[in-house]
Amino acid sequence: MVSVSMTVNGKAAKGDVEDRTLLVDFLRGNLGLTGTHVGCDTSQCGACVVHVNGDSIKSCTMLAVQADGATVVTIEGLAQGSTLHPLQEAFREHHGLQCGFCTPGMLMSAADLLQKHPNPNEHEVREWLEGNICRCTGYHNIVKAILAAAANLQGHRQAAE
Fold first, then answer.
1. Residue among 66, 70, 32, 77 at smallest CA distance from 53
2. Which residues, in sequence order, are CB contacts of 4 under 8 Å at separation 6+?
3. Residues 72, 6: contact at Cβ < 8 Å?
4. What backbone phi and psi angles, to 5 degrees, belong to 14?
5. Is pLDDT above 60 for 109?
6. CA 20 to 30 Å from 78, out of 11, 46, 90, 160?
7. How far apart are alpha carbons 145 and 161 in whole angstroms?
8. pLDDT tens-digit readout, 38-65
């Protein structure tokens, strides 16, 4: 067993894991953060996307020991208390989800996109989401929601200036 410690959603977290334990399994099993989903176990679907040190990663491709000392944000840490993140609000308003299984990964990927590219066009959104699979929506409303959130966030940024 190996001891790991990291900051998850702003709180210190630690645990003992086998050296082969995936980050997704540590988050779900050790920390009880079940919003990060395991969809395919092959890094194809994107349901397990979280942020590690500010970048979106598929947590099924990273070992928990590789995240030792890192800052991790999961879907549970995206909202600010009871206030939804603008992306979460946009997904709700624009029907960007159906069954909801892919939604946490989509939201975490989209949050990284908007952090790095605050004003993406439709092509850039679709290209960014290439590693996230949704079997229900056809992506149209997901893309529409992300573009709406980007516009909303841009408006807030301009108002603050």
1. 70
2. 14, 15, 16, 17, 26, 64, 65, 67, 68
3. yes
4. -150, 160
5. yes
6. 160
7. 24
8. 988 788 999 999 999 999 999 999 999 9
DSSP 72-98: EE-GGGTSBTTBPPHHHHHHHHTT--S
Tell me the residue type at 107. Answer: L
Closest Cα to residue 52, out of 30, 34, 74?
74
Strand order in the sheet with 71-73: 11-17, 2-8, 71-73, 49-52, 55-58
Q: Give the pLDDT of residue 107.
A: 98
pTM of the model: 0.93
Burial class of residue 102, CB neighbours in 10 A (0-12, 13-18, 19+): buried
Residue type, 58: K
Cα–Cα nearest to 27, from 55, 53, 42, 7: 7
Size of the chain, expressed as the number of residues it contains = 161
- Cβ distance 122 to 142 under 8 Å? no
Taking the C-alpha atoms of 128, 135, 59 and 113 in order, what is their torsion angle to the nearest 10 degrees?
Answer: 20
| CA–CA–CA angle 70, 76, 79 (5° rounding) | 105
The whole-angstrom separation of Cα 4 and Cα 11 is: 14
Q: Cα separation of 23 and 105, whole Å? A: 14
